[in-house]
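User: For my dataset I need records formatted as: sequence, then C-alpha cells, nothing else. Please produce one.
Assistant:
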Amino acid sequence: MRNILPDTFHDVKIHTNDFCDHPPWMENSISYINPFGNFTKSDSNNSVLISLFNQHRQFFQSYQPVFTDGSKSLNHVGCAFFTNGHIVSYKLHSFTSVFSSEITAVYFALKYIDVHDIRKSILYTDSMSLLESLRSSSTRNPLIKEVKDFYRHLLSKGARILFSWVPSHVDITGNELADKSAKSATEFLTRPIVYADVRSAVNQWCHCQWQEKWNMETNNKLHVIKPVLSHWVTKLNRRCDVVLTRLRIGHTRLTHKYLLFAESPPTCSHCGDILTVKHILTDCVAVNRRRLRYFRSSSFDLSFLLGQIPHFNLFMYLKDIGVFHDI
C-alpha cells in the first residue's frame, strides 16, 4: 500500500495507543460546566449569551480563563489557546482532523498551565464533542488519553482545573482570539498523527484518484447520471428503489428482457425507435405533453430525473405512460 501512496504519506508517524498506566478505578472523570444552561446559540441573541458568560466569569473570577480552539480548512489545520494576554498557536499536519486539532489545543493549554504553575483555571472550548469524549471512560483515542493523563498529573500537583463549553462566533473575546489564531497559525508542530486521521486521509486520497479516473469516463452512460462519486441514500420503498436503480443503470425488463430470449431489441410502439431508458424518459415525442405536465419541461437530461434526489414526479410519470410495472 505504501508503494502506491504519494510522498506525503511516507514520513507520517502514527500516534501509538498505549495501554493505561493506571487501573481504571483511578481514572479521573473530567466533567464540564455549561454556563448557558438551556440557552442555545441558534435561539439566543449574542448579547444574551455574552451577558450569561460575563455572569459566569464573575462567579469564577478566581479561575484564570484559558480559551482553546482548533481549525481545519482546505489548505490549513491549526490549533491555538489564549490566556491572560498570551496567544500560543501551531500549524498542524494536513491529515489532522478538526477534532484532533481541538484536543491538541487543550493538551498544550494544560502544558502551559503546568509550566506557569497556574493553580486555578478554566479551559474553554466550543467543541461539545471534545468535552463529551473527555467525560467518557470508553474512548480509545490516544490524544484524549494523553490529555486525561496530563490532567491527572496536574491534579496530583494540587492544580484545580475546570472545563467549560462556550458557543463559537458570538463575540466572546477569548474564544474569537483563539479561533483567529488557530486559523492563521504559522509555526509548524511536528507530532505523530492518530491512526483514524491517517486512515481518513488515505480514504480521501483513494476517493480523489477514483474521481479523477471517473471524470475521464465521459462516454460512460452512467457518468451522466452520477458525475460526482458519493454515497447516495434513498428513502424510497423497496419497489420504487428497485425501479430507480434499474433506470439509473439503464437495464430494465422492458428494454433488456429480449437478451434472455435471444430476441430482437424492442421498439417504441409510438415511433418505432429502439426502446431505451433514455427514449422513455427524455426522447419519445409521443409523450411530450405528459413530460410537460409532470416535469414542467420536455427538454432535460437524465440526471434531472435520476440524480441524487430523483424528481418527485418520476414514478407518477412512469405509471401514467404505463411502464412502471415493466421496469
